[in-house]
Amino acid sequence: MIFEGGSFMKGVVLGGAFCMLVTLLGHIRLGHGTKAHHHEHHHIQAPNKEDVLNLSEGERVELSRSIRVYCIILVKPKDLGHWAAVRETWSKHCDKVEFYSSENVKVFDSVALNTNDMWTMMRKAYKITYERYKDEFNWFFLAYPTTFAIIENLKYFLLKKDSSQPFYIGHTVKSGDLEYVHGAGGIVLSIESLRRLSRILDDSDKCPEQ
């Protein structure tokens, strides 16, 4: 996943609004890394390339079926140019992709969320996703129209990850004691993380809409 655009402060605001996601999801599997001045990198080891190359055709097919990625793209009308590019390029490699827009847009099919606030859009998109697809997909990738991702590489990275565990993966940054994944680079949640998040989003005391 490649980080494109967006300032650090924008990420801080979005991450803070994300209801202290790292803490609320419990023991998130982020791996280990070294600290930098403004952010902290975490390195989760991908499977050995030789192991993948030695898989039989049947094993490769089964692998593709077992790692199912649903892509959530948050868009606004001003993003139409990027929106079109995402639709025609990398998003085609998701097992399923849907665009969640701030309002109804006639040019492209999308799920209208009827809000211009990015946190509220993210909140609604995650709730809809869990309600509709909790039994169909085991990994969920949220991105912006300015994000670029290679889904095959993501699946390779997730090869030895257990989606029944609460994984929260992406480009991590820090703001004080809060560590979170910056949305502009894409956020990957396992089904278990999405389940826990959905439960928290339903609790207005723990996670108010504003």
Structural domain tally: 1
The major pleated sheet works out as: 6 strands, mixed
Helix- and strand-based class?
A: alpha/beta
Mean pLDDT: 78
What top-tier CATH class fits best? Alpha Beta
> Can you tell me the CATH architecture?
Alpha-Beta Complex
How much helicity do the residues have?
25-40%
Count the DSSP helices: 8
Strand proportion, as a percent range, falls in 15-25%
> How much is the radius of gyration in Å?
17 Å
Q: What is the succession of H and E elements? A: HHHHEHEEHEHEEEEH
CATH topology: Spore Coat Polysaccharide Biosynthesis Protein SpsA, Chain A
Bulk shape: globular
How many E-type strands? 8
End-to-end CA span: 29 Å
Name a few traits of the molecule.
8 strands; 6-stranded mixed β-sheet; 210 residues; alpha/beta; two-stranded antiparallel sheet; disordered N terminus; single chain
